[in-house]
Amino acid sequence: MKLSRRDFFSIFLLMLALFFIFQFSLIMKDYGNNYDENEYVKDNRTKAADAFVPTQDDECVWIVADPEGGVYDAASQWCTYTKVAVRQFSEIPKPPTTDKVRAIILDPKTVDIKGKTDALYRLAEMGKPMIFANLPDADYVDSDDALKKLLGITELVKNSVHVNGIHMFKGFFLGGETIYKAQSEEEKKYEDIQLDIPWYSAGTGTKTYMVGLMDEGEADIYDFPKLLWRNYHKGTFVYAVNGDYCEGLMGIGFLDSMLYDVSDYYIYPVVNSNNVIMTDFPYLANENTEKLRSIYSRSVGALQRDIIWPGIVSMASKRDFNMTCFCSARYDFMNESESNNDLIFYLQQMKEIGAEAGKSIDFIGNISLAEKIDSDNEYYDSTGSQYKYRCMYTQKWDDSLPALLEEKNPEIRTIVCGDRDNSKALSFCGDNITLMYATNKASDYSFRNALLYKSLQTSLGYSNVLIDMKQVIWPETEEDEWQNCFNNIYSFMTSYWTDDTGFTNTTISQCDDRVRNMLAVKYAAERNEEGLALNIDNVDEAWFILRTHNSEIIGIDHGEFKKLEEDVYLIHAYRGLTRIGLDYSENVYYYDGPFDFGK
User: Fold this and answer.
1) Nearest 5°: CA angle at 361, between 357 and 365?
2) Residue 246 DSSP one-character state
3) Residue 582: pLDDT over 90
4) Which of 38, 90, 183, 528 could form a disulfide linkage to 388, CB 3.0–4.6 angstroms apart?
5) What is the end-to-end Cα distance of the chain in Å, rounded?
């Protein structure tokens, strides 16, 4: 078909118009991309000296445990975050005459309680919640009838039985009922929880929160081995934990949930922050090129730009998270590879998806940490970018790092660490620097890691999921190669490491602001006929979880609230008095015992 001049001219004008439309949109997009601005920087002046530390005259928790043990780790952190003083004992103490005790936590793994049941009964007579964070060996428990009575145990069915998984009932952790059980041979690789346990039966006056799962042919469902239960002994609630669930970070959520269980209401500060961090990305050094070309036929820059980044954008869109990317200016100081000039490109790309940029200071080579920081500073200065970096990542903690940053990078306000070594999950590590630890690794799903994730959501309203890109740039096995690594990351990030509780997705700088407030807040809460009076000081705003028993929030003054699930609310309160209206139904269970929160 022959085109007339008029038709040809019309088509030409249409194509020319489309060309200008697309070009104009790209120009405007580039013009509006203020990549050199870190929109998440906020001037929060809260420093380490402002962190609220209760005195020994305040209400305290007795921790009967070795300070080096996992139970003390969990209990002391829990006390820090809930603003309660700690008193540590290496043996069973005598009942106090002056201490205002909120709860007693015992660790029979590290403190010998054998033959000291009379002393335990004297503690029980205090009327305070009493938590056995684990139990002595089954033979001893079975031989001590008085101890079994205190714990509510009627029978040791077997010294050891293998269970198929665990079942936590609804109402204990946030997020509802939880079952961790391998449904196939492939899923058995996720079984890293304690599955060989003593099989105890508890009396009718006890309440069970978690059991081990068995085939129904082996036992009736009501007789499954108990992992966590509560007994009531003459005015005292006594908890028994059959396993290691109250050790380390995981234990914080268990302690919060147990204290909620015995109170009329339970309110405690949280961070309200879910983070996804991507370490060593973008990788700004032309390193390991030969290896990467043999796998991907690309250099590190082309691999990141053409293959990795599109996958990350797709995942971020589906998961809807605000990511923090920690750039690696140079890692391998054992060769002469130089850094590239891709930084501006990635700052533009990160800006488009709402991500924040930070610095990664991991390295190998015969140089010092100070020299590594100097080398990085020289690179970032050479790019001409004015981006304000406020967070830094390191895989392993170095005690010299805060002082070095005060000298060389005083603008850094947050250090994120990959490996936790009995340090608090959230703390100050310098006068104006917060320290946060990664809570889970994106590619490393297991039942225990999933339970940890849920525990921290319950206790802190916080997660910090790490996507480690160093293993992709420096692959050691086929599993480290991007096509395999991404399959796991994408699957787990969109299935397991998701926010199903309603907390806010943040970048690290946004989280830093909330962590400072959580560590510094001083608060008191009191229940009255109209509802709850919450008074906060030391900070301008803070977030709390309020857990009730069949009470609904009907209004709030000087704050906001969000219902997370039945009987669980996220409270955003401001400095001063926040009044929370509660509707008490007639069938609410009132606990009018010695545990009185917030006074």
Assistant:
1) 145
2) T
3) yes
4) 38
5) 90
Is a pLDDT exceeding 60 seen at residue 338? Answer: yes
Q: Model confidence over 496-523: pLDDT tens digits?
A: 887 667 999 999 999 999 999 999 999 9
Going through 289-336 in order, the beta strands assigned E by DSSP cover 323-328
Tens-place pLDDT, residues 341-395: 899 999 999 999 999 999 999 999 999 999 999 999 999 999 999 999 999 999 9
Q: What share of the chain is helix, strand, coil (3-state, %, to 5)?
A: 30, 30, 40
Q: How long is the chain?
A: 599
Angle (CA) 582 583 584, round 5°: 110
pTM for the model = 0.90
CA distances from 197 to 134, 150, 233 (A): 12, 20, 25
CB 346 within 8 A of CB 282: yes
Q: Strand 236-241 to strand 130-132: parallel, antiparallel, or no bridges (unpaired)? A: parallel
- The alpha-helical segments, DSSP class H, found in 116-203 are 117-124, 138-143, 145-151
Mean pLDDT to the nearest integer, 319-334: 92
Average pLDDT along the chain: 90
407 φ, ψ (degrees, to nearest 5): -85, -45
State how far the Cα of 202 lies from the Cα of 398, in Å rounded to an integer.
47
A 10 A CB-CB count for 412 gives 23
> Which contiguous run of DSSP H or E holds residue 295?
helix 289-296
- Number of Cα atoms under 13 Å in the Cβ half of residue 102: 27
* Cβ–Cβ < 8 Å for 492, 447: no
**Residue 386: its pLDDT value, please?**
95
Phi, psi for residue 585 in degrees, rounded to 5: -80, 160
- The answer to whether the bond into 282 is cis (omega within 30° of 0) is yes
| Distance in angstroms (rounded) separating the CA atoms of residues 428 and 47 | 8
How far apart CA 177 and CA 163 sit, in angstroms, is 18
How would residue 24 be classed by pLDDT, with cut points 50, 70 and 90?
very low
Per DSSP bridges, beta strands 568-584 and 531-548 are antiparallel
The rounded distance, in Å, linking the Cα atoms of 543 and 504 is 11
Cα separation, 355 vs 234, in Å, equals: 55
pLDDT digits (tens, 9 = 90+) for 208-250: 999 999 987 788 888 999 999 999 999 999 999 999 999 999 9
Q: Report whether 222 contacts 66 (CB < 8 A).
A: no
CA-CA-CA-CA torsion sign (386, 391, 394, 398): positive
Two tokens, residue 396? 């392993």
Query: DSSP for 206-220?
Result: -EEEEEEE--TTTS-
Beta-strand ranges (E) seen in 55-174 are 60-64, 85-89, 101-106, 130-132, 153-162, 165-168
Q: Residue 9: which pLDDT band, with cuts at 50, 70 and 90?
A: low
Residues 6 or more apart in contact with residue 235 via CB below 8 angstroms:
127, 593, 594
3-state DSSP assignment of residue 191:
coil
**Which amino acid makes up residue 147?**
L
